[in-house]
Design brief:
With 357 residues, the protein is of the alpha/beta class. Helix content is 33%, strand content 17%. The chain folds into two domains: 5-63, DNA polymerase, domain 1 (Orthogonal Bundle); 68-355, TIM Barrel (Alpha-Beta Barrel). The protein starts with a strand and ends in a 30-residue tail after the last helix. The protein binds S-adenosyl-L-homocysteine (SAH) and iron/sulfur cluster. S-adenosyl-L-homocysteine binds next to β10 and β12.
Length: 357
């Protein structure tokens, strides 16, 4: 028996080609797409407007799968974390961060990460593999299963309204699958999360940024974390490969493609005595002026994890830093860490059990 193929994660064009090969007319693509991504069915038998013979043929050739939920944890602040497992046993964590009447699902793009930022728990794990498009889309679909958000609700009534690609991994080290997955997620006949509600965060893989702007046009967040090359290279070794100048120029290109109305968010992790001085803030302002970007900041308090070598900056330092940026005209809110008690906050995700925890 030949192995069945995964139907989730095929682009619309690929699905069309597969159905044509089975002798089907093009209109079936839209119907099946809607069952998969609008209704969220996990069984071909439920596709009631599809002839029985075709449903059987589909079931013989394909599977509709979801990542398996291994564990679920709820934080005291209602942040929800799941450990998900894929068919080969590899695992990633996914987080849901609720706001009043909406919320963001934080999804992963790789198992582990090859960028190895020194402050990041995920980065302390080697890269195991890229996630497939099916696995990236499947994470959000699994979250919708949990919150019963099928069929796709209208935009205004969604609890799972936003997606942040800020989980494990560097999305721009897995560009092809990330683009494919986010195009599926954005398709208006299915999951229908628009590009304005998706934020992709990158450590600054400069040569890949323009492609994301052209293909997706989602909101961009760049993990800056330092105002100059010397400091940045110490905490993010990737800076030796793509130094600040290249990252900032790539941001200019990004904004050139997506339009200047859409600000780029610079994430800035506040590490005690490493990058949190007044001089650092002032240098950051000069850097922004030099590149003339429409930019805002997100100051991130450092979330410690077992074995890390950094400490969070004091509240005073963080507020002072924010004030300097704001008095120079940049929005610089301080991010409230969510889900810390269940290690669901930024940089705390991992997929392997840590010993001694
Ligand atoms: N790889 C991408 C996206 C995932 S990391 C990137 O680096 O941008 C998402 C965010 O969490 C990044 O801004 C990252 O710098 C930040 N982060 C990593 N470790 C952290 C920690 N220990 N505490 C707080 N934020 C952290
Ligand atoms: Fe990878 Fe992002 Fe962690 Fe750096 S911060 S190691 S790029 S996941």
């Amino acid at each position: 028996m030949t192995e069945k193929k995964e139907i989730i994660g095929l682009s619309r064009e690929e699905l069309q080609a597969e159905l044509t090969a089975l002798g089907e007319k093009p209109f079936r693509t839209k119907q099946i797409w809607a069952w998969l991504y609008h209704q969220g069915v996990t069984d071909f038998a439920a596709m009631s407007n599809i002839p029985k013979e075709l449903r059987e043929k589909l079931a013989e050739n394909y599977v509709i799968s979801r990542p398996k939920i291994v564990t679920e944890q709820k934080s005291s602040d209602k942040t929800h974390k799941w450990l998900l497992e894929f068919a080969d046993g590899q695992r990633v964590e996914m987080v849901y961060i609720p706001e009043e009447d909406r919320g963001a699902v934080c999804i992963s793009t790789q198992v582990g990460c090859a960028v190895n930022c020194t402050f990041c728990h995920t980065g302390s794990q080697k890269l195991t593999r890229n996630l497939t498009a099916a696995e990236i889309v499947g994470q959000f679909m699994a979250a919708r299963d949990v919150y019963n958000e099928w069929p796709t609700p209208t935009d205004e009534t969604r609890y799972l309204s936003n997606i942040v690609v800020m989980g494990m991994g560097e999305p721009l080290h897995n560009v092809e699958n990330v683009i494919k997955a986010l195009k599926i997620i954005g398709d208006g006949d299915g999951i229908a999360v628009s590009k304005r509600k998706i934020t992709l965060s990158t450590s600054g893989i400069a040569p890949k940024m323009a492609e994301i702007a052209r293909e997706l046009g989602v909101k961009l967040a760049v993990s800056l974390h330092a105002p100059n090359n010397e400091k940045r290279s110490k905490i993010m070794p990737i800076n030796n490969k793509y130094p600040l100048e290249e990252v900032m120029e790539a941001c200019q290109v990004y904004q050139g493609i997506t339009g200047r109305r859409q600000a780029i968010t610079f994430e800035y992790l506040m590490l005690k005595d490493i990058n949190d001085s007044r001089e650092d803030a002032q240098e950051l302002v000069r850097l922004m002026r030099k590149y003339n970007l429409v930019a805002k900041f997100n100051l991130i308090p450092f979330n410690p994890w077992p074995g890390c070598i950094y400490q969070p900056s004091s509240n005073n330092r963080v507020h002072e830093f924010s004030k300097i940026l704001e008095s120079n005209g940049f929005a610089a809110p301080i991010r409230v860490a969510r889900g810390q008690d269940i290690l669901a906050a930024c940089g705390q995700l991992k997929s392997k059990k840590e010993t001694g925890q």
